[in-house]
Write a structure and sequence with these properties.
The protein has about 120 residues and is mostly helical. Helix content is about 55%, strand content about 5%. A hairpin with a 2-residue loop joins strand 1 and strand 2.
């Protein structure tokens, strides 16, 4: 698998010519399937490629390979003999995103309530 280069701070990224760190991060996370891969790797033992692909609803192997390359280049995931896992940085990032889960559930409920009114 050839490594895919991740968006980097201080370089132009989607939405930012200056490459502010938050914009570089949002560019990484905004790539299709990236958040799902991180979510599936969070809190689990390393997952072999095929097991991770199955957990991600059978996404194509080429897309999974590309996204894993980006996550590895961004130092959010790593491959070892047992499979893929989040790095300490990747785990910390997911932990920081967890409060968005409860917020999104409240948001969905509010949208549901307003559509019934």
């Amino acid at each position: 698998m050839s490594a895919q280069q991740a968006p980097r701070p201080a370089r132009p990224v989607r939405g930012s010519r200056t490459g502010r760190p938050i914009m570089a991060l949002l560019d990484v996370l905004g790539q299709r399937w990236t958040m799902r891969i991180m979510w599936e790797l969070h809190g689990h033992a390393p997952l072999p490629f095929n097991a991770l692909q199955k957990r991600c609803d059978g996404m194509s192997s080429s897309v999974l390979s590309q996204r894993l390359g980006v996550l590895q280049d961004a130092r959010l995931a790593v491959a070892d003999a047992d499979g893929y896992r989040l790095t300490t940085l990747g785990t910390e990032l997911v932990e920081h995103l967890l409060p968005l889960v409860s917020w999104s559930e409240r948001w969905a409920a509010e949208l549901d309530e307003s559509s019934q009114a």
